[in-house]
Automatic annotation (TrEMBL):
It comes from the Eukaryota. It comes from Dufourea novaeangliae. This is S-phase kinase-associated protein 2. One of its GO terms (cellular component) is SCF ubiquitin ligase complex. PANTHER family: PARTNER OF PAIRED, ISOFORM B-RELATED. The lineage of its organism: Eukaryota, Metazoa, Ecdysozoa, Arthropoda, Hexapoda. Transmembrane segments: none annotated. Keywords: Kinase, Transferase, Ubl conjugation pathway.
Amino acid sequence: MSEESSSSPWWNSKRLRLDDSCNNNLNTTRSSEPKSNEKWLCSGDGTHVEPEILEDMGVSMLEDETSCESTRKSQSLRHPLSPPNSHNDRHCEKVNSFEKNIYRGSTFKAVGIDRLEQNSYELDEPAAYSTTGNESGYSSKMEIDNFIDTKESFCKSSLNASSERSSLEQFYLSRRKRKSSVVGEDKFNKLSDEMILMILKWLPKKCLVRSMLVCKRWCQIARDEALWSRLDLGGKVLSEGTLGHILPRGVQILRLAQAEIADPVFLENSEVFTDGYVSKLQYLDLSMAVLSPDGLAMLLSKCKYLKKLSLEKCIVSRSCCKAISENSDLEILNLTMCDGMDVECLRDLMKLKNLNAVNMSWCSLDTESMTLLCKSLPPSVTRLNIGGCRKTMTDDNVKDLVNSCPDMVELDLSDCTMLTMNTVRNLLDLTKIEHLSLSRCYGIPPSTYLTLAYMPSLLYLDIFGLMSEPILKTLQVTCGETQLNKFLYSSVARPTVGVRRTSIWGLRVRD
């Protein structure tokens, strides 16, 4: 029989199994078949069975369409037996593709497109979802109960998923209201910006900087130009880029005397490097400040509206003098004891035609520079100090100076030891001179000072180190209203005189 079964076609075995399932002769069929013939993967669909076989089995084809559909449906939903035969596997895959489902193993796993679109658990036949199939092809009562439980759990899970989806669609972010750090009523919110500005005006600059950290409104008000028009940083140590934060606030009067300014003066991201930026500085005091020539040149290059400038005891360069010459409104220039002055620097400085007071004492000018200075000074200069030129200032230079500046009011030629009596004759041409200083000019005879004392416009004559005290008293009686040795130090173009440290050139630097 094994030979006949192996050589017989597949429909004979199919017919045999169908006969056995209909006659309920399962035991005889299983014992007569070989062990190699196992369960089939394909479903028991009647459409794949020949009509003659069905007639032999006593099954007649129903002509009613509804009954055919129900029969076809019930047959397709049965879970068949599957042998591990590759030929049968390929045949089952074709059948499953026809039903638009994929069955894997003995467990029911459907991935059909049409079955997913409609709820597959809503079908009326519970036998379609049995997890295991018996040999007769019918589902047991336990399988039906499992199906009902699975259907209920699926309905609950689908409801939970739908409720979760709806809750996610309604989800939104909300910002928690920030608690106010102010306890009680904030009365500053009721005040206008002008009122707060008047209040902040009474604060020192250190407290004014701290007030910028309160809120954005205060930061904007505290940066107002009315609060930063004058600033005193004398004797302070300024870190890199500090001036880059200060100048854009609209400072007009700035005192940096004896301050230490680190390089670079301005950082790369500073506001001063924006296109078209020009500082509003008009009064700048850098007397005895510790600053490099490059840093000084960078600072002066951003200043175009300077009116009074003091660089006493600073190191200057050609670029510094060129930047100074661009301030056409400059009136007062103090370069006392500055190093680095040469002819090229003086050529740039002589372009300033509105100078009123100039102090270039003890600058170690050479002969060429001194000649250029005396011949090129603008006639607007009325106060001049070029003392300390012991070997470079001559009588000819004084003559050129008198011709260049005939309206001189104050002149200091102290410590110019090369001057002689001819200088006194030239000075007599200054009809408006009020203050003259010739201290330690040892080349001028003491008797000639009596001639200067009779000048009608002269009020003060300083001749320290030339006469003894008794002779001075006698000369004072002879001179009449002209006072002798009234001022020990010259105040020409200097920002501060005496012990005053709260103002420069008579302007307050502290509020």
